[in-house]
Design brief:
The complex is a heterodimer of chains A (91) and B (1003).
Chain A lengths: L2 E4 L3 E4 L4 E5 L13 H9 L7 E7 L7 E7 L4 E7 L8
Antiparallel strand pairs in A: 1-2, 3-4, 4-5, 5-6
Chain B lengths: L13 E10 L2 E7 L3 H7 L4 E4 L6 E3 L11 E4 L7 E5 L10 E4 L13 H4 L8 H5 L7 H11 L13 E14 L3 H12 L4 E4 L17 E3 L2 E2 H12 L5 E4 L2 E7 L3 E7 L13 E15 L3 E3 L12 E3 H9 L8 E6 L3 H11 L3 E7 L7 H8 L4 E3 L1 E7 L6 E7 L6 E9 L2 E5 L2 E3 L2 H5 L3 E5 L4 E6 L4 E3 L9 H16 L11 E3 L23 E3 L4 E2 H9 L5 H8 L12 H12 L20 H5 L16 H6 L3 E5 L2 E6 L7 H14 L2 E4 L4 E6 L3 H8 L12 E7 L5 E11 L2 E6 L4 H15 L6 E4 L4 E7 L3 H8 L14 E7 L2 E7 L7 E7 L3 H11 L6 E2 L2 H10 L48 E8 L11 E2 L12 E9 L4 E9 L8 E5 L4 E7 L9 H4 L3
Parallel strand pairs in B: 1-7, 8-9, 8-15, 9-12, 15-28, 17-24, 18-19, 18-24, 19-20, 34-44
Antiparallel strand pairs in B: 1-2, 3-4, 5-6, 5-7, 10-11, 10-29, 13-14, 14-15, 16-25, 21-22, 22-23, 26-27, 30-31, 32-33, 34-40, 35-38, 35-39, 36-37, 37-38, 40-43, 41-42, 42-43, 45-48, 45-50, 46-47, 47-48, 49-50
Classes of the chains: A mainly beta (91), B alpha+beta (1003).
The structure holds zinc ion (ZN).
Chain lengths: 91, 1003
């Protein structure tokens, strides 16, 4: 079970958090102007990387804030956490 | 039974404390300090069970948690019964009752033993190959397999014992209290680390604590004496907590570990009352030191499984620790020097050794010369090729090994014995290390896997790290712990060791035989009866990956996870396939290391603490008024209120009729309530609901439908505009937490520019819904100051009011289609206001109704229940709710998905009403809907989602989803049931008051 360093609360048990899938997928500003394929790309397609992945997490049983995490899915090492809207740390 | 099997010299056995216990219905005696295994051996009993597949007689094989054979059931037929317990781990106590598990009718005469004779037709994958065909026979096979399979019996009644969970945080966790673990714990604690030392045994010191050999000394003292002083010293350290009888079950990422602390299992039954039996420790350690030792390997040869065959190290332990001889005519069979330590222990006690059979041609160590000096015959370069004796070994035959070790040569010699000790070298216990995600490497010299890459702040020391010699263990422990803890002072001055052992080994995974492999039974996995032949067969049949071979042959699939034989399985695979060790993978050891009881896993979360449940502020009234409850999410909701001897149907019919004829009252407090504030609140609602919100006037309510981004219906409910920038949203009972989460998600991540704040206020208010034609009269009695006239207070509007000076909110909204008012009041006044309503409604036969009646009433009106009539595959269009989808709004969650190629298909499943041909016939929810039962396969058009008998319409009504259902109005369809077909007609889903006269009625 991970120890996650919430950017707002500090280090907490993983059981306080909920994973929210891949990060940095921005909801299109004008969905109506997208083709079916373009919309499907936003809606369904996720990378599911083995290795370093950018993820969304929510401190659901804590401050309720969403934030981003860089995690290596092959060994579960958390490389970084950062707030929503912040630029991802460069690898 | 022979009395001279017990040597009255062990200081670990208290001979003044005699304990009686029962094994297979016979009474035996042992002493305090015995395990069940040592006490049985002292009574001359080796045969304790039958093997899983062939039902071969099996004896005690080991002395610890790696035991594959001596798996027993404790206290059969009692509430404290426990299956799959290792006799080698059970400390005996007065009143212990144990029985063999895998035998029927008895361990000495076993019906399943016939499988042994049938074994030529029980090859690897037998179950897959045979019992799969014909498929219809599976049920018959299963009966016999289960009857003869030895997996123990589960308890039939509730566990009377108490269990608990504890959290532990420490700087350093040391797992295993052998020499290296004790040294590491001392170094950590003395250097200021808050340290926890755990060991699965009841004593500290591991196998060194009974090592009294002249051939392994530390600082010129016996290893056991030196260690005792160390233990004495650390037991006084302030920074160190020591837990014995504590077995680490799981080592997860980020140094999170689970351990079972056993507190009462060694006590007489009458001393266990009101004590916690076991604790599950949830340990978060900054640093972990694994010192779990190593497990001796057996040797793989024909008939290597008879009772009386033990690991050589187990024989030594039974002598040195328990004072018990496993046999009177012993033979040791080895490929390395450790068997000679066992020989010395036997010699010192005057126990007869008939011979030592050693795979090695050259043996060059002080200890072996000493053994030879005692006139013990050593067969050098020999192997055992067969064993004899049914319930107990009585003979072995041996032959000379060829130079390359691949064949046997020369004549066969038979040797008598009643006990055979095996030593195939040692396997580091890397189970916990690999559980934590650690990567192993293979060390060619002595054919072992050792830790290589650590995934967290941890280290392995001692023999679990592949250090086997005493000098190596001590030297490496000192240096690696100093480095690991980053300390200067090791707390140890010079530590001098003497060892008479040499690390040479002649490793042969599968020993050759004079018979062809097909005629041998060389067991690799004792518990699951997997043989070397099975593994070779699997390879011939094309299996390569160890994970596949394992499942096909069931090697390592038992409760012991193949602690003894997995290495041999890997070895045989690599030799047969001609590949490198580890190339086909190493098997994965999964938690728990040894089985845990369910009691330990659940701890105090039993009975009413099993899951949280939430009660409304009016709950006590429902209980006092005979309500039956149903679970909705975590809530206990009143389901219906049976009167006199009413059954559910009768109660619901009465409640439903009363609500439409006069007045009903419902506790709706469980509905989710989210308070929404901020200057952008209206815009926010526009984006999350399908309909438009900007023009909703203050004081008005509106029903909203929320979609997922994929266009599927997610939740619904009424939202009220309390002020210019203030709304209160209601959600479904079960969806409340998820809706709040989803809204927060959008606010924080997609639309952070919006000025909106959300708070859950579900628990803050009690919600009382009074409905029916007389509801207005009742509410006016409860709140006389409130103007309930239709002009001032029309349908879908809200008013602030006061009941006895307590502020409340009243909404005129309806889920039943009747005129109804919802009173929201501070939770702690909920019950008194409910009682006020009941009092005021007395003259109008006000009838409390539960969720079942609520569901019936709304179905009459064709109102959906999200989650019952929908299942995340239905759009609002599918639900025939086009009216709620704004055409004008540029965007809302899910809008774009409503015209994807898939969502605009005409033949999607759509919500329709269903009326049965026979109005008395009520459909089953979930039943399939078809149009043609003759053409097979029958095409499934959909299913029934809601179904009731309506007392107000005096007929059966149902909702369902049907392919192209929208265009099928009036069409006949069929509901095929087990013994009949029910004819139905597709109807409008609104069955009652389609125009909404009742809602807007001027009364
Ligand atoms: Zn937080």
């Amino acid at each position: 079970m991970f120890l996650i360093n919430c950017p707002f609360c500090g280090e907490r048990e993983q059981s306080e958090f909920k994973a929210g899938g891949e990060a940095h997928i921005v909801r299109p500003k004008q969905p109506t102007e997208l083709s079916d394929d373009e919309w499907a790309e936003y809606l369904f397609m996720r990378k599911n990387i083995k290795g370093v992945q950018f993820e969304r997490w929510n401190h659901v049983h804590g401050c309720r804030k969403w934030f981003n995490m860089v995690r290596d899915t092959s060994n579960d090492q958390i490389k970084a956490v950062y707030k929503m809207g912040e630029k991802p740390p460069v690898e | 039974m022979s009395n001279n099997l017990r040597f009255k010299t062990s200081k670990f056995i208290d001979e003044t404390y005699r304990i009686s216990f029962k094994f297979n219905n016979k009474t035996y005696f042992g002493f305090k300090g015995d395990t069940l295994a040592s006490a049985l051996l002292a009574n001359g009993i080796h045969l304790v069970g039958r093997s899983f597949k062939y039902h071969r007689p099996r004896g005690i094989m080991t002395s610890g948690s790696e035991e594959p054979n001596a798996i027993i059931q404790l206290h059969d037929n009692s509430s404290r019964t426990e299956p799959n317990v290792r006799a080698t781990e059970v400390e005996i106590y007065e009143g212990l009752v144990a029985s063999s598990q895998n035998c029927w009718p008895s361990v000495n005469f076993d019906v399943g033993g016939i499988n042994n004779l049938l074994s030529p037709i029980l090859p690897a994958g037998f179950y897959y190959k045979t019992f799969m065909w014909p498929a219809s026979f599976w049920e018959k096979y299963e009966y016999f397999i289960r009857k003869s399979a030895g997996l123990g019996k589960s308890p039939k009644v509730a566990d009377p014992d108490i269990y608990e969970h504890n959290y532990i945080h420490c700087d350093v966790l040391v797992i295993g209290a052998g020499i290296s673990g004790i040294m590491a714990a001392k170094m950590a604690a003395k250097n200021g680390f808050k340290t926890l030392l755990v060991d699965e045994k009841s004593y500290l010191g591991g196998s060194s604590i009974y090592d009294n050999s002249e051939f392994s000394k530390i600082n010129n003292q016996l290893t056991s004496s030196w260690l005792e002083k160390e233990i004495n010293e650390i037991s006084k350290l302030e920074n160190l907590e020591i837990k014995v009888r504590t077995s680490v079950a799981a080592f997860h990422g980020y140094n999170f570990l689970l351990a079972r602390e056993n507190l009462t299992d060694h006590l007489p039954i009458n001393q266990r009352e009101n004590k916690v039996r076991q604790r599950l420790l949830k340990i978060r350690a900054k640093k972990v030191i694994t010192a779990t030792g190593s497990i001796e390997r057996p040797l793989i040869f024909d008939n290597n499984d008879r009772p009386g065959i033990l690991l050589s190290s187990a024989i030594k332990k039974y002598i040195d620790l328990y004072g018990v001889a496993c046999g009177e005519n012993n033979i040791l069979f080895t490929n390395n020097d450790t068997a000679y330590e066992t020989a010395m222990s036997l010699i010192q006690r005057g126990i007869k050794i008939n011979a030592i059979v050693d795979n090695r041609e050259q043996i060059d160590s002080k200890i072996s010369y000493e053994v030879e000096k005692n006139n013990i015959k050593i067969y050098k370069g020999y192997t055992v090729v067969d064993t004899y004796g049914y319930r107990r070994i009585n003979k072995i035959s041996i032959m000379k090994l060829s130079k390359d070790g691949q064949t046997v040569i020369g004549d066969k010699t038979k040797l008598n014995c009643d006990c055979l000790g095996l030593s195939g070298g040692w396997t580091p216990a890397v189970h916990l290390f690999t559980q934590s995600g650690g990567k192993l490497k293979f060390r060619e010299e002595d054919q072992v896997f050792i830790p290589n890459v650590y995934p967290s702040d941890q280290i392995s020391i001692g023999s679990c790290n592949g250090d086997f010699g005493l000098e190596e263990i001590i030297k490496n422990t000192l240096s690696s712990i100093k480095k690991f803890l980053d300390i200067d002072n090791s707390e140890y001055k010079t530590v001098e060791t003497i060892s008479g052992l040499n690390q040479s080994k002649r490793n042969i995974w599968l020993l050759p035989s004079d018979k062809s492999i097909g005629k041998t039974k060389s067991f690799v996995d004792y518990q699951n009866d997997a043989t070397a032949k099975d593994i070779k067969l699997a390879l011939r049949e094309g299996f390569r990956s160890i994970e596949h071979v394992k499942r096909y042959t069931t090697t390592g699939m038992g409760t012991d996870q193949g602690k003894l034989g997995n290495m041999h399985a890997l070895g045989i695979i690599s030799e047969t396939a001609g590949t490198k060790m580890g190339e086909h993978g190493t098997t994965t050891f999964r938690p728990p290391y040894t089985p845990l009881t369910f009691g330990t896993i659940v701890g105090r979360n039993v009975g009413e603490f099993f899951d949280i449940f939430r009660r409304t502020p009016i709950h006590d009234w429902h209980v006092a008024n005979n309500a039956e409850f149903e679970n909705v999410g975590q809530w206990k909701r009143a389901w219906y209120y049976p009167k006199d001897n009413e059954n559910m149907h009768q109660a619901v019919q009465r409640e439903s009729k009363a609500a439409r004829d006069s007045a009903g009252i419902l506790d709706a407090s469980t509905l989710g309530k989210i308070d929404i504030q901020g200057t952008d609140a209206s815009e926010f609602l526009n984006r999350v609901y399908t309909n438009a919100w900007s023009k909703l006037a203050v004081g008005k309510c509106r029903y909203g439908l929320m979609l997922n981004e994929d266009g599927m219906v997610y939740d619904d409910g009424v939202t009220t505009r309390l002020g210019e920038n203030h709304y209160i949203m209601t959600t479904t009972t079960g969806g409340a937490a998820n809706v709040l989460g989803k809204l927060e998600d959008y606010l924080q991540t997609e639309w952070p520019e919006l000025d909106v704040y959300l708070s859950s206020v579900t628990d803050h208010y009690a919600t009382i819904s009074v409905c029916g034609p007389n509801s207005k009269k009742i509410v006016s009695k409860v709140i006389p100051d409130l103007d309930l006239s239709d002009e001032k207070f029309p349908h879908m509007s809200f008013k602030n009011a006061k009941i006895d000076n307590i502020k409340c909110r009243v909404m005129r909204i309806s889920f039943t289609g009747e005129l109804s008012y919802e009173i929201n009041i501070q939770a702690n006044f909920g019950k008194s206001v409910w009682e006020k309503c009941m009092e005021a409604g007395k003259d109008f036969n006000i009838t409390p109704y539960g969720t079942e009646t609520m569901h019936l009433l709304r179905a009459e009106k064709g109102f959906i229940i999200v989650g019952q009539d929908t299942d995340a595959t239905l759009t609002p269009i599918d639900l025939q709710m086009d009216w709620i989808v704004s055409k004008k709004k540029y965007d809302f969650i899910g809008k774009r998905s409503l015209y994807r190629s898939d969502t605009i298909r005409e033949d999607r499943k759509q919500l329709v009403g269903l009326l049965t041909e026979n109005p008395e016939e009520v459909l089953e929810e979930g039943a399939q809907i078809v149009s043609d039962v003759k053409k097979t396969p029958i095409e499934m058009l959909g299913h029934v989602t809601s179904s009731y008998y309506s007392p107000n319409l005096k007929k059966s009504i149902a909702l369902g989803v049907v392919k192209s259902g929208k265009n099928m109005l009036g069409q006949k369809l069929i509901i095929p049931m087990e013994n009949k077909n029910i004819n139905v007609t597709v109807a409008d889903p609104v069955f009652l008051d389609k125009e909404g006269k009742k809602l807007n009625a001027k009364l």
